[in-house]
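Convert to structure. Protein one:
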Amino acid sequence: MFFSKSVLSVVAVLFVGASAQRKGAAPGPPVFTATRVYNTLTDVPPYFVTATTTVTWTQSPSTTFAFPTGPGHP
């Protein structure tokens, strides 16, 4: 009898732990990366090179107003 209660207790703890991990591990906001590759000139050989610019940002709620206010705006 004691063995079955202890097994039941262990199984219950495992289920509760797994459930808490799924609910508590909310995914973070999406991260986006844009890479721009372009040709440019330099003052050192080979003079014509390929340069790369990388921009990374995280999606978040907008902090700007959809309708601007101020002079000339009702």
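Protein two, convert as well:
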Amino acid sequence: MSQLTVGDVLEGRYRIDHPIARGGMSTVYRCVDLRLGRAVAAKVMHDEYADDPASRVRFRREARAMAQMSHPNLVGVYDFSSDDGMSYLVMELITGGTLRELLAERGPMPPHAATAVMRAVLTGLSVAHQQGMVHRDIKPDNILINADHRVKVADFGLVRAAAASSHSTGSIVGTAAYLSPEQVSGSETTPATDVYSAGVVLFELLTGETPFSGDTPLAHAIQRLERDVPAPSSRIDGIPPLFDELVATSTARDPEQRFHDAGEFLAALDDVAAELQLPAFTVPVPTNSAAHRAAAVPTDTTGVIETTTLSPEPEETKIVEPEDEAPAQDTRFLPPAAAAGATAAGSTPATQHLPSEPEEIPADQPDPVSNRSGWKLGIGLVIAAVLIGAVVVGAWWFGSGRYGEIPQIVGMDRATAIETVQEAGFEVDSEIVYDDDVAADNAVGTQPEPGERLEPGSLVTVLISRGPPTVPAPADGMSLEDYRALAGERTLEVDTGDSVFSDDVPTGAVAETTPAAGEAVPVGSTVTAHLSLGPEPIEVPDLAGMDADDARTTLEELGLNIGETTSRFDDEIPGGAIITTEPGPGRTLERGERVDLVISTAVAIPDLTGQLLDDAEDRLSEEDFDVDDKRDDNAVGSHEDEVVAMRPVPGTLVDPDVDTEVLLITPGQITVPDVTGRTVRDARSQLRDAGLGIDASIFDNSDTITRQTPAAGTALERGERVEVETDG
């Protein structure tokens, strides 16, 4: 029995004052806690959910879980109970309003304001995620702003109870605009589900609108299965790219690609705020909210107050049936209505009592007048006066009296400007315009202009400043004509300047601008567009003599591709180095074109001088050279088998495909070594190895040589002897 009236008392404790809001699943009432003497809010489930045992069990479990989560950014839950078949939550009474109402009053928020709201939302939501809770219905209507400017997350639990109800089997539970892809597809919901919805809320805070739309709630919901949430900067200029990245990550279609939970989202948001050095911001309280008015009503209100429906109407949390295209009943925020007037949705409205006509009171009877002409004259004068008055009043009404004057609103903030024009008796819409002098989100003027007079109820457009225009960034491949149209939307003219080379922008498209994209300029400024010449031509470098691997790296770094590689002999280029290229050095190519390489096969004769003949012959044989040797009688060496010269000389480049003979030259003369200070035995061995003899037969092998003839360094023919003297 969810039909409650003013004065009803729940379980002898919570006295109903009046309804605050009514939705498809519950009604929220302002109540007085008679035990503690404080104002609270009671959310009472509608009969179709309260009568379902499974819903009540989940509702109770969620209520207990929420009661354990005490945090300044969560709406406090004080009590839960069932009374005469009703299930209800008793919660903290929020006396400010909803984020939905704030958005309706002020429109899109700058990044620092959106950050202040989302920091509070994600802080509260992270507490719930740490407790294993998933909200599943994050939206501006469930984000409340208290009178002390504190932002709080509300409505945990009830949506989960609705999901368990038999009424929603096979249906999509939630608000279409904020549903995650997994909610639409019926997959498992996790904290990443709330992250997606919070990302949509951030998008709406920055742009003033949700990312998708549809003719029906189902069509609206299905879009997130097929499309990514667009970047906020695509809807409103000037939003930093880091906020685009926040929205993109939080609203990734794959839950695994999102922030894991609200805590991770919050950490990323704080990093962005620090990077951009965003200022602190106090979230304002909506000035015209149902909660604000509810808080202003005394708790003993019993009089009848005319019921009106307030705008804007919030997004409804609903069960989206696949075949249901009829609009569902929205949540209605009600002013403090009367006891009998606060009936449940669908009940007969209370009869309005109109005052009856006043009783006729007879006037004093005048004394009889005998002169009938005088009487007629009096009547005539009265009629004449009435006619004259009617003419005067009519002239005033059909002249200037029926018109109102459009007020001056320049410099007022958006909400104040709209309210001022409305109070003057006009219907109002708004238009965002660029202006050099008036700060963003303040009024520039009206259309028609202030001071003009119109009939009451006429439409007046309030012009709201977007601030000075910024130079738009050309989209990839954007033509000059399309860029002129884009700049024209920002009041800007476009001229063309010098064309520039660009690796990324196609030839003829807008490559860059002066001033640069994103720079603020006065209204009506001229922007210079520089068209692309395409990639800058690349000159083929001279690679002759460069190692082939180094040459390939050089060409690739220039943006050229490696074509065919061939080899041939060149007697000036070492093997493995570049002989030439095709096209040749100095030719110009476009990025990505191919360059063929010609690599030398030449083999260099190794330098084997100083080595023994046998070792040198082995080395040359291994390298497929033909080998011969020759003794040069005029050549001098330290050993009779030492290679003292080669023909061809070392370093000569030869063709490996042609047989090449290398001549090794050994000495005919030996350089006498210094043997003084050595024993006769050691000196004999040293001289014999060099190809010389020793004249020391009269000496003992252990004697030390003190003198030798000829002296060390003298050249002797092979086999000659060295005379020595010893100390023996």
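The mean pLDDT is 81. The CA atoms of residues 388 and 394 lie 10 Å apart.
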